[in-house]
């Protein structure tokens, strides 16, 4: 399926932005649909760490997410498996001096029957969700910046 990505500029240092978006347990603070996140693996958060998530969209959606990449200060990605199939998600962070360029993306790698059935709606909803998430992240990070 299609790859989606949205970008925003945040008036905060890149390190602060990266720290916020790479803390998977905080994703419920800015993600839509009442997202709840629970860490399901032991040890420090790193590549391979797993989380269970639950959100309310088209009913209750439960997913298993696994961190697939952490490049400190630059990028953070994970894959989730749930009602829409297997989805690859990512953030990229770019230092722009006093501000930070943040991109958030998603790609349905292996769509479920549901994702295929509602493909047109999913293709309209994902960019809106990415934009909404970025705007909430911006507001949260900027309000806590020194």
Description:
- This protein is an alpha+beta fold.
- The protein has a single domain, classed as Alpha-D-Glucose-1,6-Bisphosphate, Chain A, domain 4.
- The protein is built from three helices and seven strands, in the order βαββββββαα.
- Strands 1-7-6-5-4-3-2 form a seven-stranded antiparallel beta sheet.
- A hairpin with a 3-residue loop joins strand 4 and strand 5.
- The protein is globular.
- The mean pLDDT is 93.
Question: What is this entry, summarized?
Answer:
Helix content is 27%, strand content 44%.
The percent range for strand residues is 35-45%
Give unreliable regions as ranges.
none
Reported for the largest beta sheet, the result is: 7 strands, antiparallel
Which sequence of strands runs across the widest sheet?
A: 1-7-6-5-4-3-2
Looking at the structure, what is the overall shape?
A: globular
Number of strands: 7
CATH superfamily assignment?
START domain
CATH hierarchy, class: Alpha Beta
Order of helices and strands: EHEEEEEEHH
In the CATH hierarchy, the architecture is: 2-Layer Sandwich
CATH topology annotation: Alpha-D-Glucose-1,6-Bisphosphate, Chain A, domain 4
How far the N terminus sits from the C terminus, by CA atoms, comes to: 41 Å
Given the helix and strand composition, which structural class is it? alpha+beta
Oligomer state equals: single chain
Q: Into which percent range does the helicity of residues fall? A: 25-40%
Which whole number gives the mean pLDDT?
93
Number of spatially distinct domains? 1
SS summary, helix count: 3
């Amino acid at each position: 399926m299609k790859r989606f990505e949205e970008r925003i500029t945040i008036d905060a240092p890149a390190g602060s932005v990266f720290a916020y978006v790479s803390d998977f347990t905080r994703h419920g603070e800015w993600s839509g649909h009442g997202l709840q996140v629970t860490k399901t693996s032991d040890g420090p958060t790193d590549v391979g760490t797993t989380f269970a998530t639950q959100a309310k969209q088209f009913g209750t959606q439960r997913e298993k997410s696994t961190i697939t990449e952490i490049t400190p200060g630059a990028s953070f990605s994970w894959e989730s498996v749930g009602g829409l199939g297997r989805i690859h998600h990512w953030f990229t962070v770019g230092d722009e001096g006093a501000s930070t360029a943040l991109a958030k993306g998603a790609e349905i790698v292996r769509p479920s029957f549901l994702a295929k059935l509602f493909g047109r709606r999913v293709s309209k909803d994902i960019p809106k969700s990415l934009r909404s998430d970025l705007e909430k992240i911006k507001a949260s990070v900027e309000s806590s910046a020194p």
